[in-house]
């Protein structure tokens, strides 16, 4: 096992609107669509596709017959959404033995996407918030080289997962989303902290609205965490770590839906770290994956395969 992802698994309900509503305003949107989502599941699929290289060419074929080296730890409901989501992860070659159906509703995300491809998201956590620290065991982290975490499950569960990942000898990647205060007892187990502009603002009180400002904010955050990456949307990403610091410009694309872009970035970054690549190489791979994800609709459906990312890098 190479990459262990502990986090949320949601069904996304997506509606398209001309613009986002103002407080108290009602707008008419498109027919709604259902997409497989949840930051944890999205990042697991993103990593699996980076390890799996190319999409299956045979109808109904699994992504990688022998598995991708990704394990997903989470909770879904004993309902139709839960069945669909768990089976979808299995089709990607992801080990779901620790993704357990329980007597609670499956998590749901309500997503509105405007004409510019920007989204707003409200999450009903459901079964995700029933994943408790005592549900995690060291056996589930054996052999992990990278552990990937987010904040759509209880914070004490995230901390316990980070601790078990560190004990297993893995590098712990925390995508601190959605934004909230990070306790020191969690930060001490984190090797790589990844945040976007709004999440960096929540942690520091400073909005990194340019690469130069983002580097200064990342340097502040790196006082507690060895490595910090700040994603900047159309301005790319910056990184600060033991290897130094730098800015990776964005790869220009025609954005359709940014819903899965951040998760594509994390999955690609985690895969590159697992493969022993340098931090600048990992951030570059993440930026390409995120850009390609923004050109397609949906969360998991938009996540690119490794061959697609490599082709864009070469071009």
UniProtKB/TrEMBL annotation:
Alphabetically ordered keywords of this record: ATP-binding, Carbohydrate metabolism, Cytoplasm, Kinase, Magnesium, Metal-binding, Nucleotide-binding, Potassium, Transferase
One Gene Ontology term from the biological process aspect of the record: D-ribose catabolic process
Domain of life: Bacteria
Pfam entry (one): PfkB
Cellular compartments annotated: Cytoplasm
Keyword tRNA-binding applies: no
EC main group: transferase
Cofactor binding mode and count: Requires a divalent cation, most likely magnesium in vivo, as an electrophilic catalyst to aid phosphoryl group transfer. It is the chelate of the metal and the nucleotide that is the actual substrate.
Catalytic residues identified in the record: 263 (proton acceptor)
Cofactors named for this entry: Mg(2+)
CDD domains, A to Z: ribokinase
Binding site for ATP: 196, 231-236, 262-263
Entries under NCBIfam families matching the protein: D_ribokin_bact
Listed name of the protein: Ribokinase
Organism: Meiothermus hypogaeus NBRC 106114
Lineage, highest ranks first: Bacteria, Thermotogati, Deinococcota, Deinococci, Thermales
